[in-house]
Amino acid sequence: MATKARRLTLLGKLVAATFDEAAKHTTDQQLASRVATEVVLTMLRKSRRHTSPLEKARPSGVAASMSWLS
Questions:
Q1: What is residue 47's predicted lDDT score, i.e. its pLDDT?
Q2: Spatial contact of 15 and 40, defined as CB atoms under 8 Å apart
Q3: Rounded to two decimals, what is the model's pTM?
């Protein structure tokens, strides 16, 4: 049985790490940026689906400012 670990990180660090990883696979910076954007959005959407109902009821901080993602 696989366990999924939850890690907290700053959004900026997540975006930077995702872009760096995408840039390893292409020399086209626009393509790397688009791929990184899609990956980060997918990760944020998935993390929102796995948030408890109580956390969804009281959005705060980054989650509140990014409510337009859902």
A1: 79
A2: yes
A3: 0.58
